[in-house]
Amino acid sequence: MKLFDVYPLFDIEPVKGTGNYIFDKDGNRYLDLYGGHAVISIGHGHPHYVEKISNQVNMLGFYSNSVQNPLQQELADKLGALSGCDKYELFLCNSGAEANENALKLASFKTGKTKVISFKKAFHGRTSAAVNVTDKSSIQAPINKLFKKEFHKFNQLKSVKKSLEKGDVCAVIVEGIQGIGGIHVANKAFLEGLSKLCKKHKAILILDEIQSGFGRSGHFFSFQHTKIKPDIISMAKGMGNGFPVGGILINPKVFKAAYGLLGTTFGGNHLACAATTAVLDVLKADNLIENAKEVGDYFLAEAKKIEGVKEVRGMGLMIGIDMGFPIKELRKEMLFQRRIFTGSSSDPNVMRLLPPLGLTKREVDVFIKAFSKVLANHDKGATIIDHID
Ligand SMILES: Cc1ncc(COP(=O)(O)O)c(C=O)c1O
């Protein structure tokens, strides 16, 4: 059977991973500054993670959500304690798109409305409602475009305020740090303004922390550089370190749980809980959130010194290097000549760096040296690459 061909692929076959490195089938080692697209949070093959998942699958891999599963409560308790969001309630699902789908659904249940405010360059997933509020019409099928949405300028409040004043908005959905859009950090005044406006006009504020959450920004959630308390926070990616897990944190002052309101077959299953609990254990024990802040600050400062770089943006270990010209060839050269994985974005000029959170300053230096050398030899006539979400 032929595979449905949806991604352009690099000719590399990783077979093993340890810490911040992956190894291909020929035994070549690569520094992973892409984290499998922001998914690898605690590093590849962490012994605690491997042990927890292995023990769990030996005991019980799955049973349905119709019976007691204390692993979900253990996860919720650890997540509440580490994130500081212990007053929220947790609903577990399997992916980022599914998290946003449930978030938007709850918002619509609550308000009885359907119009959603989103932002230019936003990415929220590929399922029905999530893709409708994603700023890329080419990935929206007619069936996805069933409710009204608006894309406002990121980090600007004026037009959002005007729209909310009409009183017909169900939700505002925003990434704490736009990832696929090319690494744009939502600033404090913007997030605080959105929070105030949503409260005033009774719209639900959904913070999409799917890429920027679980410690990547140097905070547990990137919005925590402000004092806002979103109505819903969506999570996935780093949450399972590769195991497919997603979830939403729900403010119980805004939403009252009821049987049948949300549901899932696989969400919160035993193996997924073991994976996420292991991630939380390691984030805490290895001080990975503090490390993401310290090494991230160092990375940002060092990247800004590279000659020829137009702009460096980001927070913690979620970094965008804007070259002012397409980076397709640079990424290839980094991968095949220097054996360093990097990411792209929907902006062809921006290289995205999303490494495991245990990255060291020495590994940052390796990147800086390699990138400077590649840049020095580079011919600027590169063309645009299709990005992988
Ligand atoms: C900010 C953001 N939201 C949602 C998603 C969708 O997540 P998933 O691919 O797990 O459905 C992504 C994926 O890249 C994302 O970056």
Write the SSE topology.
Blueprint: E1 14-18, E2 21-24, E3 29-32, H1 35-38, H2 47-59, H3 70-83, E4 89-93, H4 96-111, E5 115-119, H5 128-132, E6 149-152, H6 158-164, E7 169-175, E8 177-178, E9 184-185, H7 188-200, E10 204-208, E11 232-235, E12 246-250, H8 270-285, H9 288-304, E13 311-315, E14 318-322, H10 328-336, E15 340-341, E16 350-353, H11 361-377
Parallel strand pairs: 3-15, 5-6, 5-7, 7-10, 10-11
Antiparallel strand pairs: 1-2, 2-3, 4-12, 8-9, 11-12, 13-14, 14-16
Pyridoxal-5'-phosphate (PLP) is lined by residues 95-97, 100, 123-125, 175, 179-180, 208, 210-211, 236, 389.
Task: Give an overview of the whole structure.
With 389 residues, the chain is of the alpha/beta class. It has 2 domains: 14-46 and 287-377, Alpha-Beta Complex (Aspartate Aminotransferase, domain 1); 47-285, 3-Layer(aba) Sandwich (Aspartate Aminotransferase, domain 2), CATH 3.40.640.10. It is 34% helix and 17% strand. It has 11 helices and 16 strands. The protein has helices at 35-38, 47-59, 70-83, 96-111, 128-132, 158-164, 188-200, 270-285, 288-304, 328-336, 361-377; strands spanning 14-18, 21-24, 29-32, 89-93, 115-119, 149-152, 169-175, 177-178, 184-185, 204-208, 232-235, 246-250, 311-315, 318-322, 340-341, 350-353. The strands form 4 sheets. The protein has a 7-stranded mixed beta sheet, sandwiched between helices. It has a 4-stranded mixed beta sheet with strand order 1-2-3-15. Strands 13-14-16 form a 3-stranded antiparallel beta sheet, with helices on one face. The chain starts with 13 loop residues before the first strand and ends in a 12-residue tail after the last helix. Mean pLDDT is 96; it is low at 381-389. Residues 95-97, 100, 123-125, 175, 179-180, 208, 210-211, 236, 389 line the site of pyridoxal-5'-phosphate. Pyridoxal-5'-phosphate binds next to helix 4.
